[in-house]
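Query structure, 343 tokens:
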């Protein structure tokens, strides 16, 4: 692969994943820089005054690296970002940007900017009080980029970013669920702006964010309307990627069809050695005694598709990552991640 070429990988479902990597060889991945929402948050919201937090049990119960303790990941184990990085040879998990120990040479192993409740639109997730929007996450990456320049010098920093790193963005679900479709709070928005108009705004924001980032680097039940909006958005996203492929020379974009992949897991769960339903159904409890009482059961229940009503389990994330890395064009096109890496 030409070392001046940037490769961009995008997955779309209830969320969007965007990853960039350019390799001049096939050596192990050095770092992973992760942007997004609760599907890939590794603990940034632990350091925010927010109503969206995951640093409580039973989250993390199957996360080996923490000994089963919660880390701020909104699932029982690893996220899709964690698994893809591992499969591509990344030696360490990307650390949360807001963690106090994410300093010095630690950032060369990767940084995670994702935030539960975050979205493409800056107003998304305001119900949680605090969260990191995509724009803020990009601003934080620019801070990291300057720190890498200081650590390695500009020439080596550019080589690290362009040849030894993968960038991923998993975002978009909250823009529907915790913005446009939010009861009461967003009723006025839905009256004044049609679904197509809102999707236009999302696409325009995402276009600006992706272009800004690339240019910076080179220098069981489903909610009907939510699903309909996601499918419309995914169609528009495909058009956007075609546009960016034509206009951002030196960049290559892939599209991952995670919407259909998750639907496949839900519909044909037995085929994937999974079980229908939730691994853990969140509910109000008088304290954490009830949660503790269910821990042993949870340790035996590692095959469910969903960890809670909104987040896939580690078992599901493993299946999704497998299809994205080695799957066919039904789920990732025009090629899979491994084929892209080996160009």
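Result returned for the query:
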């Amino acid at each position: 692969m030409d070392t001046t070429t940037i490769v961009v990988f995008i997955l779309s479902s209830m969320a969007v994943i965007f990853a960039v990597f350019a390799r001049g060889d096939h050596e192990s991945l050095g770092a992973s820089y992760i942007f997004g929402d609760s599907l890939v948050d590794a603990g940034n919201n632990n350091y925010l005054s927010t109503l969206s937090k995951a640093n409580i049990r039973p989250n993390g119960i199957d996360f080996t690296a923490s000994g089963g303790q919660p880390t701020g990941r909104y699932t029982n184990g690893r996220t899709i970002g964690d698994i893809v990085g591992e499969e591509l040879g990344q030696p360490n998990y990307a650390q949360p940007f807001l963690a106090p120990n994410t300093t010095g040479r630690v950032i060369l192993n990767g940084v995670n900017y994702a935030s539960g409740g975050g979205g493409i639109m800056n107003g998304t997730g305001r119900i949680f009080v605090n969260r990191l929007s995509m724009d803020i996450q990009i601003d934080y990456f620019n801070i990291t980029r300057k720190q890498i320049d200081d650590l390695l010098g500009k020439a080596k920093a550019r080589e690290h970013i362009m040849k030894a790193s993968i960038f991923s963005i998993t975002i978009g679900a909250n823009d529907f669920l915790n913005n446009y479709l939010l009861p009461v709070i967003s009723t006025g928005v839905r009256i004044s702006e049609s679904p197509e108009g809102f999707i236009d705004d999302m696409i325009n924001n995402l276009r600006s964010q992706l272009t800004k980032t690339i240019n910076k680097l080179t220098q069981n039940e489903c909610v009907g309307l939510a699903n309909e909006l996601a499918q419309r958005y995914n169609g528009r996203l495909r058009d956007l990627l075609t546009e960016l492929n034509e206009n951002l020379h030196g960049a290559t974009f892939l599209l991952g069809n995670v919407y259909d992949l998750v639907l496949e897991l839900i519909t044909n769960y037995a085929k994937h050695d999974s079980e229908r339903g939730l691994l853990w159904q969140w509910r109000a409890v008088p304290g954490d005694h009830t949660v503790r009482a269910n821990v042993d059961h949870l340790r035996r229940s590692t095959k469910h598709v969903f960890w809670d009503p909104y987040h896939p389990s580690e078992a599901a994330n493993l299946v999704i990552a497998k299809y994205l890395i080695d799957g066919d064009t039904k789920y990732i096109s025009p090629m899979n991640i491994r084929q892209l890496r080996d160009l």
